[in-house]
Each structure stands twice: as C-alpha cells, then as structure tokens.
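Progress note, sequence design subtask.
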C-alpha cells in the first residue's frame, strides 16, 4: 500500500488521503479518502468507479516479458529509438516534466493534478534526445506494485521524423521502467487505465494482461461536499 495526504486548503485543513493498492476503509479526521484497488467490494458510504488496466507479471523472466511485446509496434520501435540515441534517465528533472505535462494536458483538454504531490510521491523517468526531454513517465509505487501515473510527451504536428522519435521515446521509457521495477523487487507493473481505445492499443502492445481495477472515494467534510457539488460532482 502507498499512502499520502494533502490539504484541500492547507496541509492541516480538510486533509484528503490517497491510498494506492489498497481496499477502502474509513479514516478518522479526514475530509475525503480515495483508494485504488484491484478488488471489487461493497463498502458502506464509499462510491466506486470501475476501470480496466493492463498488468505485466514481473515474476516472469525479462526475456519472456520482452517476447510478449508486439514486434513491430513496440520491440522494433524500441530498438530503432535506441539506435537513434534516445536516453532514459530516472532523475528529478521535474522542471522539464512539468512543462511537457502542462502542454500535453492542455492539448488533450484534460484537467491538471496537484504537481506538488507528483514531486513528493512519484518516480520520474525522462526520455532525452539530443540533450532535451521529449517524453516523461511518472510512476507510483508501494515497493511491490508500480503503476503508470502520468505519461506525457511533446507533439510535433509538422515534423514526421520527430513524431516518430517521440513515439520511440515513449516505448523505451516504459521498457526501462519495467526493467527498473523488476530489478527493484516489484511483482506487478501496471500500465495504467486503458479506457481510451488508442491508449489501450498502445499499452496492451507491451504484452500485459487485462485486469479490472477500482477507484473508491468517500467525502466526510460538509464543506468539501458543498464545494464539490458546486463543481458538478453528484456522487458524494
């Protein structure tokens, strides 16, 4: 289980808690709790959102994991990108990651998450090409399970070569994260949600198995409930 908390206003005001890889349970003195789990259960007072993800069994031999990846779509692109000179680093270059993340989310019309939480809780991998970051991957881990939290990359709409390079960087980044996770004793590598068809095709190209996953949440604070209702939330 991976746990962290942060404040709705400040860290000590209306604290919200996140639990990854854990079944839901009640927390005292909390404004809101969120859980991510692979188990489907009914818990009084909790709302549940169902999802599908793609999971790789890291107890397998690395050669077996590699062999299950789609040859042309993933393995060939990884090898081409390596020959092109793309380098993956697990570092703390959150400055470049933030820029890519914000541009990516704006282009996709997606909301932005709390970046301070990313910096404190995530494992960051950056893909460098000719000295610049062109793709990033942030992962959340509890030491046994590791899950893709944020995948973001630059867009080159008028440059076919760079589009291809970025695609290769995304694939190498995940491959290096898989190797890192296995080397550090993780048992499960979760590529994250596959709700969008194009995203599902990309993630399932790495040879993982489909697995159901569930998000649970419960709001305790009347003030937070009011704020969420004003923002359009219904199940609170």
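Output:
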């Amino acid at each position: 289980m991976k746990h962290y908390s942060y404040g709705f206003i400040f860290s000590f005001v209306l604290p919200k808690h996140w639990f990854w890889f854990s079944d839901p349970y009640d927390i005292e003195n909390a404004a809101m709790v969120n859980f991510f789990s692979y188990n489907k259960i009914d818990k009084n007072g909790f709302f549940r959102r169902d999802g599908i993800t793609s999971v790789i069994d890291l107890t397998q031999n690395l050669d077996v994991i590699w062999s299950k990846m789609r040859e042309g779509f993933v393995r060939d692109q990884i090898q081409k990108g390596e020959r092109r000179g793309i380098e993956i680093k697990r570092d703390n270059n959150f400055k470049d990651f933030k820029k890519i993340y914000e541009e990516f989310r704006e282009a996709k019309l997606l909301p932005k998450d709390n970046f301070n939480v990313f910096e404190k809780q995530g494992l960051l991998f950056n893909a460098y090409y000719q000295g610049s970051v062109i793709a990033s991957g942030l992962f959340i881990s509890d030491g046994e399970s590791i899950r893709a939290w944020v995948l973001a990359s630059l867009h080159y709409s008028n440059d076919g070569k760079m589009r291809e390079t970025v695609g290769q960087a995304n694939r190498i980044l995940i491959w290096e994260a898989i190797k890192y996770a296995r080397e550090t004793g993780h048992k499960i590598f979760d590529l994250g949600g596959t709700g969008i068809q194009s995203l599902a095709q990309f993630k399932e190209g790495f040879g993982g198995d489909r697995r159901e996953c569930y998000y649970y949440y419960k709001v305790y604070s009347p003030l937070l409930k009011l704020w969420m209702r004003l923002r359009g939330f219904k199940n609170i």
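The chain has two domains: 2-50+213-230, 54-212. Work on this subtask will continue into the next period as scheduled.
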